[in-house]
Interleukin
Amino acid sequence: MERMIIFFVLSFCSSIVLAAASPRAVKYKQILKKIEELEPTVKDKDVELLHTPENPMDECLDTAVTCFKKGTQKLQPINSQVNATFTKAIRIINKFTLRGPGKCELSCESYEKKTPKEFLKSFAKLIKNV
């Protein structure tokens, strides 16, 4: 009887450990959430277009993330009421890093320029695919 109880306790504990999300997955979800929070609060008219990496190759993922981080620094809030939330989201995104497996030959300037909303959608797509 004792062995059976120990077996069930060990089975239960191992299933909990296996179900727990990795720290990397949690971080990606947090970044994705912040990007989605920025989308409705970002100014999209009369602003600078941003270099937007789309479907970067695996060896260029870290370069693409660097481009997105540089681009988010150029984003502007739609109005002053969303400024605090906007600033906090930008700060969290700027702490995000991603290490790519190889050396990329592309620079940020080689990517097409798009509006801030398209820029954020492309950033969210990259995070979902990583």
Summary: Residues 2-19 form the longest helix (18 residues). The beta strands are 50-51, 113-114.
